[in-house]
């Protein structure tokens, strides 16, 4: 059957097979790109969102403890261990991938934490101790810090939602390309079959 094919039909069959090969190669590269996008997105959601949210949660707990201690004892706790833990969490959070908005909120948080530390140190070194004025400043500083943490937490949710949507769209595109690939392969396969099994049709004309 193959020997009976004319040079023209052989060329047409070869061209169809070449198109199939190029189509498979192209869709394979597109599939790989979309798979990499989804993989990177999933990694980013965990490393830069879930882990970062955990840092925010732990920081929130530490500052809440400071606020509760101040309310119960009307004085400052020793805080050396807690402050070291806060510095460690801030350092870890700063190493995550930050958007422009996150970077702004994080810088505000760092600034307010430094101001709180300076206030605490000033009160500990003061002979007057915890005055009403000092207490008000501490409470205001803690409130600003809690607001910064809340802003960062909300940003994590927004960014996580956007990354999830990006992964969903990439998977949908990949599924569409796979379906188109099957359709093209079926069409080209039928063309090859026509060329192989009806090689003389064009010659009779």
UniProtKB/TrEMBL annotation:
Keyword terms: Membrane, Transmembrane, Transmembrane helix
Statement: the UniProt record of this protein carries the keyword Transmembrane: yes
Chain segments annotated as transmembrane: 176-198
Protein name from the UniProt record: Four helix bundle sensory module for signal transduction
């Amino acid at each position: 059957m193959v020997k009976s094919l004319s040079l023209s039909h052989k060329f047409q069959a070869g061209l169809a097979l070449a198109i199939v090969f190029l189509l498979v190669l192209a869709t394979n590269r597109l599939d790989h790109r979309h798979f990499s996008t989804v993989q990177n997105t999933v990694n980013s959601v965990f490393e830069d969102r879930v882990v970062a949210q955990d840092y925010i949660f732990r920081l929130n707990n530490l500052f809440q403890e400071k606020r509760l201690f101040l309310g119960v004892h009307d004085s400052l706790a020793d805080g050396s261990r807690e402050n070291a833990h806060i510095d460690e969490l801030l350092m870890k959070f700063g190493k995550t991938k930050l958007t422009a908005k996150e970077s702004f909120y994080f810088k505000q948080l760092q600034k307010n934490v430094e101001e709180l530390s300076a206030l605490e140190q000033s009160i500990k070194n003061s002979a007057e101790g915890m005055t009403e004025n000092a207490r008000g400043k501490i409470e205001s500083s803690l409130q600003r810090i809690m607001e910064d943490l809340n802003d960062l937490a909300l940003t994590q949710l927004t960014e996580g939602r956007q990354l999830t949507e990006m992964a969903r769209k990439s998977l949908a595109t990949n599924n569409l390309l796979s379906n188109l690939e099957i359709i093209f392969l079926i069409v080209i396969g039928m063309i090859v079959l026509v060329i192989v099994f009806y090689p003389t049709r064009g010659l009779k004309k």
